[in-house]
Design brief:
By secondary structure, the protein is mainly alpha-helical. The protein has a single domain, classed as Orthogonal Bundle (Arc Repressor Mutant, subunit A). 63% of the residues lie in helices and 9% in strands. A hairpin with a 7-residue loop joins β2 and β3. α3 packs across α4. It is elongated, with a radius of gyration of 18 Å. The relative contact order is 0.12.
Length: 140
């Protein structure tokens, strides 16, 4: 078996990657019964925050590239989570809205995200939680 480099525990890319895997995996399990992926849930929460955004606005809000978001939106339309309607002032642009299906599960899905957040943050003091969130925002 190959020995790990001595500085690996200090490798932030490794540490952030492992933290992401753990958090992402836990949330993925929570969303599986609903047939949603983590990124689809993120889109729904963005739309619950400001329903009727364009794809460009969603992309900016959630810091997602347009190519990734385009495929996500198409799958969400196909599975009935969102609807796309022409913009009333510019027919070339479409606005995205949550569907009745999504709105009917809004409280449950937001609670799943809150549970996942609480699980991650449980080992930290309130002050450490705020610092962690602030530092993560700085990275994105």
């Amino acid at each position: 078996m190959q020995k790990l480099p001595e500085d690996l525990p200090e490798c932030l890319v490794f540490l952030l990657g492992k933290a992401y895997q753990k958090a992402h995996g836990d949330f993925k399990k929570r969303l599986k019964p609903y047939g949603l992926t983590n990124i689809q849930h993120l889109v729904l929460e963005g739309l619950w925050y400001r329903n009727g955004m364009t794809a460009t606005e969603i992309s900016r809000l959630l810091k997602l590239d347009k190519a990734t978001l385009s495929g996500v939106l198409e799958r969400m339309i196909e599975t009935g989570w969102i609807v796309r309607e022409p913009h009333p002032e510019d027919g070339r642009v479409h606005r995205i809205f949550t569907s009745e299906k999504a709105d009917g599960l809004k409280e449950k899905l937001i609670e799943e995200r809150k549970k996942a957040n609480r699980k991650i943050l449980a080992r930290f003091s309130p002050e450490e939680q705020e610092v962690l969130k602030r530092l993560l925002w700085e990275l994105i």
